[in-house]
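INPUT
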Amino acid sequence: MRKHDAFSRRGVLKGSLAFGAGLSAPQVMVRSARGQNAKRLVFISEESSPKAQAAYERINADFKRDTGISVTMEYPGFTNIAKRVATLIAAGTPADLVWYGAGTALEVAVQGQLANVDDVVEEVNAPQNLRLVVNGHNRSIPTSQQFVYAWYRSDLYEKAGLKPYTDWESYLSAVRALNKPPQQYGNLIPSTALGASHLLMFTMLQKNDAHWFRFDPAKKEYEVALDQGENLARAVETLDFLHEAHASSPEASNYNWAELMSEYSTGKLANSYYVGARLLEQVQTNNPELAPVTKAIALPTRKTDSYYISVQGFHIGEKSNVDGAKNYVRFFLKHPAYIDWLHSVPLHIIPAKRETLRSEAYLKNETIQKRMDVLEFLESVWGKGTPPYYWDGPELNPLYGLYTNDSLGGWMLAERNIRKRGSREIVQQAAETIRKKKADLARRRG
Amino acid sequence: MASENRLARAAWVGTALAPALTLLVVTAYIPIVFALTLSLYYRTAFNPRLVWAGLDNFAWLIAQDALWAALWRSLVFTIGSVSLQIVVGLFFGLLLNEAIKGRAMMRSLVILPYLLPTIVIGLVFRWIMNPQYGVVNQILLDLGLVSQPINFFGGLKEAMPSVIVATAWQYGSFAALLIFARLQAINPRLYEAARTCGAGPWRSFLDVTLPNLRTTLLLIALLRGIWMFNKFDLIWIITAGGPLEATETLPVYVYKIAFQDFDFGRATAACVVMFLILLAASFAYFRFFNPTKEVEVGR
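OUTPUT
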């Protein structure tokens, strides 16, 4: 027998060492958090428009002058910020401060990676409905919010002798009357498993008072309820309604947010839904003639006036320079450039507090002055919306990510409008998907 | 004296190889070991804590219908894309090999798609093939070839072929360059001999050109096959795997596990599965085609 064919003691030892080193590699390579650096803050911001960046620069320069703490900014963009935050945590070097959606931050908070910010939230007197309370403590300092609503072409409505819609019936009548393909379509119903489609489905479920989950007060936990009782009937009805509206919608490549804005600003659509006023800003930039006839309107109601609120705020890493980050947030909210920052996309980044919305400083903006009708619209729907993680019950739903991360609402729309499956079957499959994910999560958490 | 020489030689070889080996270890082997071992742990993106999972991530993965569907789509995409790249490469390679006017400029034009950043190609393709305002649909409608715009990237049946065409457009030039280089090296006497024997252009192509290109075509199939199997960027930019998973290949599926479910343990397990598939395909390639022998014959 040749020597290398046999199991030698040295060979076994070498093999065991290599195997052991391999298994321990992740433990060695995944460092623990880098800890505090009292003189530096790493700040990741979702908002990255040039005007917002200029406001950050002013605030950061003043903050360094006053405290000696330098702020390093990162702008990964709306679609990538959750990934950036995740990879930094995974690498053991989490950011000190992140400004983005509280819904996106929820999962980070549930995993115990966000600091308790009760003190700052109380100091700034943040509105109750915008707070993110996880494990008994605030984990988000709300600065602003975006409402889900819609935009319509008032000129086309007037020409057709139509009044703006209010409910589902009048909505369908309007979009059918204004649908003249291929030059003009009644509306756009994005139908793919991406955020734009998911948020539309979510908001329309809210309008029809349909719920994904049911809160069990005895167990103090959430159970999947989308396919049960009235929820099933309402979810099916919602899907069928959006399917009918889709008959007056153009097809698009991937229905992302940019496509929604492009379709509207090229004059192809009579109606489009959006989150906030960025759509209006794009119309003003790319097709100014359409801007004056682009009006804000609430999405049509069925059983409720509710809509999806996207809350944005500051989030501080649990193992970061917590004190420095809290001081920065206090400094930021008191700085005069905070208003410029809110104006970076006028009427899109809506202040968290109503008194800020009504303040002289906020109103002193050319776009806002020109479009007081939008401001009045925002005032008219103020307080009627609900953040998605509070939609299904009185307590924060920590399982919200189970159907949001993969945009399940968008998937439902795609199955109905693109693959043309039946609504009931889709709703039942969606509920089963969430149940499976919930069970998998519970099994893995032991 | 001899042992001193051996030592000096070993030191010299070690010093010369050290930078390359260090780079290889740091950029390739450590990440591979890291991924291999991470696949054996429960590891979510938002929590640095590692929990031993054994083979549970693999068991979960194998039970997912989505994995097998993505694997099938990867095979369709890889075979479709590589075949089309070879056809495009062959066409332009043969064209460039002809003594035609403006050949130098054509060479530059042929390489252009390969030099463009993928993001540019993705956005341009999305723009020109848009069902509402894309120029391709406008031309088709104006010519009366279609009555309704085609939803190239948003249609369930159309998306995969459209993504294959976009990829072939970008990478066909790579094949064209390799084929052109090989065509230049074919001995002209072989064509003269073929003509003497009464062979026309088509017979010469079949009996002289193709046998001489065999090694190059196999090399393109291997390299582009591996690259296409791992292709992520262009698919993600154009369709993000949609509509309804119609273009969700394995890399897109892995990305979704990592950055939609934020599950790094399962994502690395899926990476390991991809790695093993490619390893098996490479073994099969070397076993059946024996490229070393092919190159020797090619000489």
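end of record. Chain A is about 45% helix and 15% strand.
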